Amino acid sequence: MNFLLTILGLGLLAFGSFIIVCSYIRQVQNHKNRDNPKASYSSPAPFVGPILVILGLTLVSVELSPWMLLLFVLDPDTVIVVTGLMWLLFNRQKQS
User: Fold this and answer.
1) What pTM, to 2 d.p., does this model score?
2) Domain residues for 19?
3) Half-sphere exposure of 65 (CA within 13 A, CB side)
């Protein structure tokens, strides 16, 4: 059973890492095509990559540390969504 959990964990870890790398590639492409608004792309599920990586690490039996939360800071799509939500929250408070 441990072997199957390790295989599943490594698969989740690889897929989550792939999603994060694709996020970086999309951000670079968005920056190159910033003059063409139809060429921009935003992720429909920004938290999926970091969550899959953390789930994969728990299945592989790696000790989780608070430093694992840096994955949410390092994923560009997640940073954009969190920053946008904070801006909306604080902007709404200023208007009230």
Assistant:
1) 0.76
2) 2-95
3) 2
